């Protein structure tokens, strides 16, 4: 897509953070937006911020882990707007716990949202993007989809999975010379609520320190605003980027991921021991 003017964009996790910023930026650029989130109040606020810009705004309270609900939403968006050109699978949650102590319920909760939510959104909207004659899938991974981080095994697993899933999708689309493309996004520290709302097991505190201290540290190092992240994501769509790193910290993570395995592993172990 060379322009978003008059196109239809669907965004999950639109009640706050990057999702909200994307919704507003898309509306500012003349795109009609279909928004979803489990947070009804936050979603309504985002809708209010998008209205009055001469574009159509629709919304749906939605749990992306519910496959049937996501497919029903995609059908409704296509019916309400007449077409869909862009899907941003942004909804996500966080969990801090060691492998030894995290519960099955917690890891299933996270994977159902962070990974299966992306799968559901991609599969539900892909036929509509192809029908529109041009389209783009944006799946939000993380810098934790580049290297494994202690106490973040479940989160890393979900974001590595998003990365592999989206990379494979893009290759498939290029093989068939599709009118649809795909981008994987790896944000670094973005000033959102995901860390503050994370589930945190007591075992994580023994490695990463007290929960409050960990959240304060995240706020300190999170240098990129959601607004700037949204702008970068839209630029990546318009330039048809395969992968997008957001923030200087994301570039550092990418560099570490390219180091010889023993060296990268040593850096992570040394850093973790200092934190203890």
Textual characterization of the structure:
This protein has one domain: NAD(P)-binding Rossmann-like Domain (Rossmann fold, 3-Layer(aba) Sandwich). Helix 1 links the parallel strand 1 and strand 2. It is 53% helix and 15% strand. The longest helix is centred in the middle third of the chain and has 23 residues.
Considering the chains and any ligands shown, give keywords for the structure:
alpha/beta, 7-stranded parallel β-sheet, Rossmann fold, 276 residues
Mean pLDDT: 89
Strand content: 5-15%
Shape: globular
Sheet bearing the most strands, described? 7 strands, parallel
CATH superfamily placement: NAD(P)-binding Rossmann-like Domain
Count the E strands.
Answer: 9
* Unreliable stretches covering 5 or more consecutive residues: 194-199, 213-220
Which sequence of strands runs across the widest sheet? 3-2-1-4-6-7-9
Structural class: alpha/beta
CATH architecture type:
3-Layer(aba) Sandwich
Q: What does the radius of gyration come to?
A: 18 Å
SSE pattern: EHEHEHEEHHEHEEHHHEHH
CATH class: Alpha Beta
Assign a percent range to the helix content: 40-55%
Helix segment tally: 11
In the CATH hierarchy, the third-tier topology is known as Rossmann fold
Separation, N- and C-terminal Cα atoms: 48 Å
Q: Can you summarize this structure?
A:
The protein has 276 residues and is an alpha/beta fold. It has helices at 17-28, 40-50, 67-81, 104-114, 116-132, 153-175, 202-208, 211-221, 226-238, 248-258, 261-275; strands at 8-11, 32-37, 57-61, 86-89, 95-96, 135-140, 180-187, 199-200, 243-246.
